[in-house]
């Protein structure tokens, strides 16, 4: 019998009601034998995520401010959950756990350690509640002394330790460095823990339980009732996530992709819904042209024009030199024969735009530079696009019909993604126009 690794995100394990939903999901399928849990997330819109409370404790510790009251909020939340779940102090001595954490903090334990305690305590609760074994992530997820994940060692540790447990709950988000210090992934990193476990255990599927039905073709804040995405390929998802479609941590795709393990995004609050399946090849449906549309605002575009640019050896190298002087990376780099557009994140450029442009002028001597820092980018993604004629024509016509001026086009070589740049003010209208052209006005009509 194969196994499923099931990761439950913060809102899926935020309180006792959610814990009970997890229990029935797990009981419904005995192959869900390895669970990864996040720290308790928000219970309602204005609630605070437990991890945020912990980061706040850490900030207080760093600034020598009293943090007991804040930590008491953390304690109270877990104690109340343990009580409502009927976990006796004999089975799980939470007070002792809290005291250990408090002593470690007083002893100078680092920020990653405190941030990780939400996952740690929640996994302890879940393991006791379900009658599963608790296996600490410090034994399984291994980082080197510089904080980089040691992939092979991690694979080896997981495949050696976890099969000894029939059913286990593992805290997400963190692991350990060689001398035992706790190290976390970036925010939302429990998704990565789940993916690493699924890969090492050769799971049949990596289930990622959240509070949405999976991916939608477009952002529901922009398009009314967008269609759900039933199946999407890893590569399509990567392109959409890069452009801002959230739900899954970007780095969670790589481990499972290497071994072709499908990821199934599911909704803890509607367990019967099949969600979105993320697979290696999603191109079965010949009628599907566009899988998803995503984008974000606030890019700075520096357009460079230089006669015979292609013959100017070292042009790109000098450009990258300027970027590295400012510790910047480019987001896109569409290029023509005598033109090149450097697309940068406006937030990362900050107030250095003038200096960057002057350096580019000095070091690259372009004939002409144009700067626009009011640009939004929209990616229209679909593996089916490469097999179809007229996709670009339909997209550009839709934008023209909506009276939107396209400022930049980038098709990349994968042929599964057409990126257009429009003015920030046209962003929402442009997404609705593209949705209308490819998916249909009936669902996506303007708001
Ligand atoms: N609890 C962590 C966060 O809030 C990690 C996670 O939930 O995946 O980012």
What does the model show?
This protein is an alpha/beta fold and 447 residues long. The protein folds into two domains: 4-211, Acetylglutamate kinase-like (Carbamate kinase), CATH 3.40.1160; 292-446, VC0802-like (2-Layer Sandwich). It has helices at 16-28, 50-62, 68-84, 94-106, 111-130, 151-161, 190-200, 234-242, 253-258, 315-325, 346-349, 353-364, 391-401, 427-438, 441-444, and strands spanning 4-8, 32-37, 133-134, 168-171, 174-176, 182-184, 205-210, 231-233, 263-267, 276-279, 292-305, 339-345, 368-381, 408-410, 417-423. Strands 3-4-2-1-7-9-10-8 form an eight-stranded mixed β-sheet, with helices on both faces. The chain has a five-stranded antiparallel β-sheet with strand order 12-11-13-15-14. A hairpin with an 8-residue loop joins β9 (263-267) and β10. α2 packs antiparallel against α5 (111-130). The longest helix is centred in the N-terminal third of the chain and has 20 residues, at 111-130. Mean pLDDT is 92; it is low at 442-447. Aspartic acid binds at residues 10, 38-39, 49, 51, 118, 172-173, 187-190.
Total of helices: 15
Query: Quick one: how many beta strands?
Result: 15
Query: CATH superfamily of the largest domain, please?
Result: Acetylglutamate kinase-like
Radius of gyration: 24 Å
Q: Could you give the order of the helices and strands?
A: EHEHHHHEHEEEHEEHHEEEHEHHEHEEHH
CATH topology of the largest domain: Carbamate kinase
Largest sheet, order of strands side by side?
3-4-2-1-7-9-10-8
Distance between the termini: 48 Å
CATH class of the largest domain: Alpha Beta
Q: Can you summarize the main beta sheet? A: 8 strands, mixed
CATH architecture label name of the largest domain: 3-Layer(aba) Sandwich
């Amino acid at each position: 019998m194969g196994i499923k690794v099931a990761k439950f995100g913060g809102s899926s394990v935020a309180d006792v009601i959610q814990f009970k939903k997890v229990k029935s999901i797990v009981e419904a399928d005995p192959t869900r034998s390895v669970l990864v849990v996040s720290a308790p997330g928000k219970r309602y819109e204005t609630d605070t995520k437990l991890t945020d409370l912990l980061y706040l404790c850490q900030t207080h510790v760093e600034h020598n401010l009293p943090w007991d009251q804040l930590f008491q909020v953390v304690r109270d939340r877990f104690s109340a959950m343990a009580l409502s779940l009927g976990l006796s102090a004999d089975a799980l001595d939470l007070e002792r756990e809290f005291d250990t954490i408090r002593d470690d903090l007083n002893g100078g334990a680092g920020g990653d350690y405190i941030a990780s305690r939400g996952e740690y305590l929640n996994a302890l609760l879940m393991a006791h509640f379900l009658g599963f074994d608790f296996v600490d992530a410090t034994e399984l997820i291994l980082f080197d002394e510089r904080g980089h994940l040691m992939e092979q060692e991690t694979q080896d540790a997981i495949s050696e330790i976890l099969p000894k447990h029939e059913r286990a709950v593992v805290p997400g988000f963190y692991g350990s460095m060689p001398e035992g210090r706790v190290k976390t992934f970036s925010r939302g990193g429990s998704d990565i823990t789940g993916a690493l476990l699924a890969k090492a255990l050769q799971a049949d599927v990596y289930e990622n339980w959240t509070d949405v039905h999976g991916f939608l073709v477009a952002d529901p804040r922009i398009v009314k009732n967008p269609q759900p995405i039933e199946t999407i390929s890893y590569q399509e998802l990567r392109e959409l996530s890069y452009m801002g479609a959230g739900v899954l941590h970007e780095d969670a795709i790589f481990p499972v992709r290497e071994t072709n393990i499908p990821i199934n995004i599911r909704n803890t609050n509607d367990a019967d819904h099949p969600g979105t399946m993320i697979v290696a090849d999603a191109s079965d449906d010949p009628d599907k042209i566009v899988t998803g549309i995503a984008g974000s605002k606030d890019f700075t575009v520096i357009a460079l024009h230089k006669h015979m640019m292609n013959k100017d050896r070292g042009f790109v190298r000098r450009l990258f030199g300027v970027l590295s002087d400012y510790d910047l990376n480019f987001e896109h780099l569409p290029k023509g024969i005598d033109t090149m557009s450097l697309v940068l994140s406006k937030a990362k450029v900050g107030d250095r735009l003038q200096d960057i442009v002057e350096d580019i002028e000095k070091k690259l001597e372009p004939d002409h530079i144009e700067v626009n820092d009011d640009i939004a980018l929209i990616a229209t993604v679909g593996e089916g696009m490469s097999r179809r004629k007229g996709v670009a024509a339909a997209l550009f016509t839709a934008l023209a019909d909506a009276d939107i001026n396209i400022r930049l086009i980038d098709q990349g070589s994968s042929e599964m993604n057409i990126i257009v740049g429009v003015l920030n003010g046209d962003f929402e209208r442009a997404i609705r126009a593209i949705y209308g052209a490819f998916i249909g006005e009936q669902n996506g009509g303007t708001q």
